[in-house]
Amino acid sequence: MNRPQPNEYPAWGETYISKVDGDIIEILEEQV
Question: What is the CA radius of gyration of the chain?
């Protein structure tokens, strides 16, 4: 999976979830 960088998605909290929907949730938990 090609994961976009935070600077590519300014609101990647919601935007990125809408893009990939699933795996992102684990990534967000790691980022927090």
Answer: 8
- Number of folded domains in the chain? 1
- The set of residues, in sequence order, having a beta carbon less than 8 Å from that of 13 and lying 6+ positions away, is 28
Please state, in angstroms and rounded to a whole number, the distance separating the CA atoms of residues 7 and 16.
11
Q: What is the extent of the structural domain holding 29?
A: 1-32
pLDDT tens-place string over residues 5-20: 655 555 556 656 556 6
What's the pTM?
0.16
Under the phi-then-psi rule, with left for phi > 0, alpha for psi from -120 to 50, and beta for the rest, what region is 24?
Answer: alpha
